[in-house]
Amino acid sequence: MLSAPAFAAALPESVPASVFPVPALPAPPLPPPPHAASRATPIDTKHTLRMLVARELTKEFMSGSHQLTVLRDVSFAIPQGAFVAIVGTSGSGKTTLLGLLAGLDTPSHGTVILDGVDLRRLTEDQRAKLRGEKVGFIFQSFQLIPTLTALENVQVPLELRGESGASARAVELLTRVGLRDRVDHFPSQLSGGEQQRVAIARAFSNRPRILFADEPTGNLDASTGGRIVELIEELNRESGTSVVLVTHDLGLAARASRMIRLADGLVVEDREAGMGNRESTSREGVSIPDSRFPIPDDKEVA
Asked: Considering the domain boundaries, does residue 209 fall inside one?
């Protein structure tokens, strides 16, 4: 079993060690999966828990002497168990938004509420603990530790959490993604699709209540990418985990139950995938609220 410092040292430089924090307590068990329904079925918000709320999110950076606004007054809510795709061209703010939603970065203005917890009220360490308990990540470039086998890559987050039976759980997950016979292989011995399946198994190892995926098929061919999305869909249905997928591929996004489109840092479309435009936001940032996903007041959150 790797110690926390040893694991942090082994991470690729592009992955912050806080993505795999060491929480003090095991994550709570998942609620039962929601009743199966067609993608076209409207969501009953009176009986559906909100998993994620973005309220008037704005992110600004200084570029020399100029202020650059990457996101501007982005607001929406996502219920528990939903599968949502965030789409947009390069530079639209998709990845920046994902980092804010996951608590990896903080907004210049606005609020993110994750499973009832207002992230702006947490310290960096508290946000890391929350991610360890409730959040999973899938990266475009897989971000596997090259010196560890597939089995060990999936085991590490479990061992850092102090869970017993980490090896058995890792084997179970790798079997679930079709890699039972590849558990002892290193990343360099796996194809791109196989590496991403290891990353998916790792992301689900802590039984997350919400999964964030940043262009998970971006480095894969169309056929392999389609199978990866099918796998994410299956795990979403079976576990009840909410999924937020960032992609520029509208074909993949159409497989989600809901699609949010960004352009120039604004939400310009928010609708059920394949069902026509139910809600939109003007390029000037004036939101038309969607009654299916109301944004809660401050008094409704922790």
From this structure: yes
Give domain status of residue 223, yes or no: yes
* Residue 247 falls inside a structural domain: yes
Angle 167-169-174 from CA coordinates, rounded to 5°: 95
Amino acid at 46: K
Phi first, then psi: what are they for 266, rounded to 5°?
-115, 150
Cβ partners under 8 Å of residue 149, min gap 6: 183, 184, 185, 186
Domain tally, the chain:
1
> In this structure, is residue 69 part of a structural domain?
no
pLDDT in tens, the chain (302 residues): 555 555 455 555 555 555 555 444 444 444 444 443 333 334 343 435 789 999 999 999 988 888 899 999 999 999 999 999 999 988 899 999 999 999 999 999 999 999 999 999 999 999 998 998 899 988 888 889 999 999 999 999 888 888 888 999 999 999 988 899 999 999 999 998 899 899 989 998 888 899 999 988 887 778 777 778 888 888 788 888 999 999 888 888 888 999 999 999 999 999 987 543 444 443 333 333 443 444 555 545 55
Q: Which residue has the tokens 């991610």?
A: 131
Domain of residue 259, residue span:
80-106+124-292
